[in-house]
Amino acid sequence: MKVDELSLYSVPEVQSKYVEEPRTELEEHFSQLRHNCEPYTTWCQEIYSQTKPRVERFVQWGSDNYEYLQNAPHGFFPRLGVIGFAGFVGLLLARGSKIKKLVYPPFFMGLGASIYYPQQAISFAQVSGEKLYDWGLQGYIVVEGLWKEHFQKSGNVKNSPGNK
After folding, report:
1. Phi, psi at 50, each rounded to 5°
2. Helix H or strand E segment including 24
3. What is the rounded end-to-end Cα distance, in angstroms, of the chain?
4. Any idea what DSSP says for residue 71?
5. pLDDT tens digits for 38-67?
6. Is the pTM value of this prediction over 0.85?
7. Other C-beta atoms lying within 10 Å of the C-beta of residue 94
8. CA–CA dist 90, 84 (Å, integer)
9. Alpha helices by DSSP H, the chain
10. What are 82-87's contacts with CB under 8 Å, separation 24+?
């Protein structure tokens, strides 16, 4: 018996023709659902592509800090404890007022940090002082402009609340 005579190896003589079946109702509904959801999925993909680098940088920052804390320099943790305790003392002293609760803890923590890191505290104070001065000057200019705009118009000075 030859290999061609075996039914396992024989090739059918019939020509096949591809016929596409009509879409079912379920396929139509899925197609409409995909079409309706496309704007939302593209929006999610854009947000993901914008957020992914930030998350990766944050994860890298966390792993770098973890590695630093694993190999911290001598005396780092006691200094950190003193600075944290100073913030806690500031929080305890700030009872009652919400503004005190916002101001005292950072002030006491900055005071504690300046004991251990005086050079960095000096440079921080210089830069912060310059920025505060600039912000104050900008605020003064804005208030002065609003004052002139509102009260320096003709007749408004006589009707201002302070001149009754």
Report:
1. -80, -35
2. none
3. 125
4. T
5. 999 999 999 999 999 999 999 999 999 999
6. no
7. 18
8. 10
9. 25-70, 76-93, 98-116, 118-151
10. 82/112, 82/115, 82/116, 83/109, 83/112, 83/113, 83/116, 84/109, 85/112, 86/111, 86/112, 87/112
Q: How far is CA 97 from the centre of its chain?
A: 29
The position carrying tokens 């505060």 is 132
Structure tokens belonging to residue 115:
């004991």
Nearest to 142 by CA among 155, 134, 128: 134
Burial 14-51 (b: 16+ CB within 10 A, else e): eeeeeeeeeeeeeeeeeeeeeeeeeeeeeeeeeeeeee
Identity at 100, one-letter amino acid code: K
Whole-number Å distance between alpha carbons of 157 and 95: 43
The Cα 116–Cα 118 span in angstroms is: 6
